[in-house]
């Protein structure tokens, strides 16, 4: 019964901060970097691309087709093919994850903008909003819930997908899985899974919180209804 | 552009080697294995997820299961799950690897089947009852055909997931195209890595095309609006 809970805590204690690159602390930091960069980057890239697709409708069909194809590509072979270009670096994991994120977020941005009711848009025009101000003050805020729903999917799946990078030596906490497999030992697997799911839950909660702060009118309306 | 030239020379080396085309480690065999494992996992997932999704969608009970499973499947790291099952159950059979494959491919089908049934216009449901259909008949004759595009979308998303996870599962000893990538990487045989990767990518794309075609054929013309209702 040496695999019971006490030995997990003991194992964490011994491996938390060994000073080596594969200490849990360093793996956690790597994991955060490799998941946060694609999450932020895919949002930053998807916003203008989604805006363009919403404005010039002919652009949306080919873009969403391309994004569907990208989304269907399995991550491991894509990492492997990128190695010859970007080497065994974090970039090799970050680039595909950014594209997967965009594949989810571009349609979300387009759907969000399309969810703006016509009478709202016309009211903004009638009130003298310039196109840019109308976009920033009226259309984007209304699109926020749909875009953030997409971002929640992207955040949670990016955080879990980073671990596949362990198969090319760049997987953050995924490194715990390869270590546990090579030297059969359960605690690293449990710690890895728990930490990754916990990170995903925290990221998800933060986005939900951001949504509340960015769309105060949703709760105000609910308050009025009750 | 030196990486591009080495890319093509690796590709030529991999596909040009006659030994790669025959025997248990040959491309046809590996392709067949990949297809077999993916199809097995996907079929099991469909058998589990579609009835449960239909039931929850139709009765409106147990919706929590749908939400929790969808979130959990996204958050759980596939590699960690694979290693955990193999460490727990050993590698005597392929089941320790197939079980996590099935577990991860159930939620997309479950969620979309549920959403599909929930999203059916209530008036259509009432009309079906009004025509004298009973509960089960309403489900199979009216709700399922209308929900079919979403059910198939769930299957397509699951197929994406399964093909990718089968590749990763080569790390824990499963056969299939992932072997070229995993073994090639371990022995620094980059022709294998690049050739295997290209094969997997092509495999994934062909699976997607097949699903797109299946959707065209299976969905009723009235539902997909290929035929305008006058």
TrEMBL record, chain A:
<feature type="transmembrane region" description="Helical">
    <location>
        <begin position="66"/>
        <end position="87"/>
    </location>
</feature>
<feature type="domain" description="ABC transmembrane type-1">
    <location>
        <begin position="28"/>
        <end position="207"/>
    </location>
</feature>
<dbReference type="GO" id="GO:0031460">
    <property type="term" value="P:glycine betaine transport"/>
</dbReference>
<feature type="transmembrane region" description="Helical">
    <location>
        <begin position="142"/>
        <end position="169"/>
    </location>
</feature>
<dbReference type="GO" id="GO:0005886">
    <property type="term" value="C:plasma membrane"/>
</dbReference>
<keyword id="KW-0812">Transmembrane</keyword>
<feature type="transmembrane region" description="Helical">
    <location>
        <begin position="93"/>
        <end position="113"/>
    </location>
</feature>
<keyword id="KW-0813">Transport</keyword>
<dbReference type="GO" id="GO:0055085">
    <property type="term" value="P:transmembrane transport"/>
</dbReference>
<dbReference type="InterPro" id="IPR035906">
    <property type="entry name" value="MetI-like_sf"/>
</dbReference>
<comment type="similarity">
    <text>Belongs to the binding-protein-dependent transport system permease family.</text>
</comment>
<keyword id="KW-1133">Transmembrane helix</keyword>
<feature type="transmembrane region" description="Helical">
    <location>
        <begin position="32"/>
        <end position="54"/>
    </location>
</feature>
<protein>
    <submittedName>
        <fullName>Osmoprotectant transport system permease protein</fullName>
    </submittedName>
</protein>
<dbReference type="InterPro" id="IPR051204">
    <property type="entry name" value="ABC_transp_perm/SBD"/>
</dbReference>
<dbReference type="Pfam" id="PF00528">
    <property type="entry name" value="BPD_transp_1"/>
</dbReference>
<dbReference type="InterPro" id="IPR000515">
    <property type="entry name" value="MetI-like"/>
</dbReference>
<keyword id="KW-0472">Membrane</keyword>
<feature type="transmembrane region" description="Helical">
    <location>
        <begin position="189"/>
        <end position="214"/>
    </location>
</feature>
TrEMBL record, chain B:
<feature type="transmembrane region" description="Helical">
    <location>
        <begin position="37"/>
        <end position="57"/>
    </location>
</feature>
<dbReference type="InterPro" id="IPR035906">
    <property type="entry name" value="MetI-like_sf"/>
</dbReference>
<feature type="transmembrane region" description="Helical">
    <location>
        <begin position="138"/>
        <end position="155"/>
    </location>
</feature>
<feature type="domain" description="ABC transmembrane type-1">
    <location>
        <begin position="31"/>
        <end position="211"/>
    </location>
</feature>
<feature type="transmembrane region" description="Helical">
    <location>
        <begin position="78"/>
        <end position="103"/>
    </location>
</feature>
<keyword id="KW-0472">Membrane</keyword>
<keyword id="KW-1133">Transmembrane helix</keyword>
<dbReference type="GO" id="GO:0031460">
    <property type="term" value="P:glycine betaine transport"/>
</dbReference>
<keyword id="KW-0813">Transport</keyword>
<dbReference type="InterPro" id="IPR000515">
    <property type="entry name" value="MetI-like"/>
</dbReference>
<dbReference type="Pfam" id="PF00528">
    <property type="entry name" value="BPD_transp_1"/>
</dbReference>
<protein>
    <submittedName>
        <fullName>Osmoprotectant transport system permease protein</fullName>
    </submittedName>
</protein>
<dbReference type="GO" id="GO:0055085">
    <property type="term" value="P:transmembrane transport"/>
</dbReference>
<dbReference type="InterPro" id="IPR051204">
    <property type="entry name" value="ABC_transp_perm/SBD"/>
</dbReference>
<feature type="transmembrane region" description="Helical">
    <location>
        <begin position="162"/>
        <end position="182"/>
    </location>
</feature>
<comment type="similarity">
    <text>Belongs to the binding-protein-dependent transport system permease family.</text>
</comment>
<keyword id="KW-0812">Transmembrane</keyword>
<feature type="transmembrane region" description="Helical">
    <location>
        <begin position="194"/>
        <end position="214"/>
    </location>
</feature>
<dbReference type="GO" id="GO:0005886">
    <property type="term" value="C:plasma membrane"/>
</dbReference>
